Amino acid sequence: MEFYDKEVVLYSKRAVAKFEECRQNLKFCDVTLQSGQVEVKAHRIVLVAASPYFEAIFKDGLQEHKELVNCSDIPSDVLPSLVDFLYTGHLTIQSSTARELMATAHMLCLDGLVTGCARYLKTQLNTSNALSMLSFAETLGCSKLSEYALDYIGEHWTIIAQRKELLELSLIVFIRILCSDRFVPDNELEVVFAVVRWLEYKPTARAPHCSELVRHLHLGRIPADVLDEMWRIVRDTRVAEGLHLSKKKTEAIANARARRRSAFYMVKRNRISKYDIHRNYAFQRIIPNICAYEGRRAFCNRALKG
């Protein structure tokens, strides 16, 4: 049987409030946390109760009885507000320090604060930071922020695929995008172009990964003649060789799972059209969004010939 005494619960809340009052008045503080030039006084027992990170620090024989404890792992511009949060459970997340705060909360095993930061960063997503946000989330292993970023990247892929940040993505993060069920771009052809651009940006290092990337493309949704033309205009010979597909491989890829938003393409009457079964139920004229890519304007002319 579970039993709760309301008076004791109320007393506990008052005790927590009293700790904060003592800290504000610098009463009974037994430790000073230091990061750079910033110092914050606190009570060891409160810090230990809030995070196993501090328990590990204070168990260290060299730090156990020191009044001044070096916390260089915690950014100096985050430390004061973080300690406030440990005492009060309240914190104002700022755009300038949100990522630092989230990384620190992750290190301190403050799962609630990590979730709060992820929700805040979701509101800050835009076409210029979505890729770096995904890389950041993957580094931390924060699945929730990764999901937010992947949803946004899929919705705004036409713009994001043209940004230079895409070319700087690591192989792991790029594959994470391509294989995710949450990545739902409108035009599969634009995904192919992005892969080619990424490969040709550093062809020596990246050409060996061609087959690994192609495995995550859904080439069966792209007209064969358009796809053949795409392979022919690849400029780097190493990348071109890596992307060259035999008939057997092409058939295998065509039978691979489709992305959630299924679309079919048709080449007819000097135009490429797309039929999206989840949008409008009508054919839409598609002009490959690669005219902006240097040296590839000729592809549009050839691909659109009847």
TrEMBL record:
It holds the Pfam family BTB. The keyword Transcription regulation does not apply. PROSITE patterns: BTB. Keywords: Actin-binding, Kelch repeat, Repeat. It comes from the Eukaryota. Residues 29-95 form the BTB domain. PANTHER family: KELCH PROTEIN, RING FINGER DOMAIN AND KELCH REPEAT-CONTAINING PROTEIN DDB_G0271372. This is Actin-binding protein IPP. The lineage of its organism: Eukaryota, Metazoa, Ecdysozoa, Arthropoda, Hexapoda.
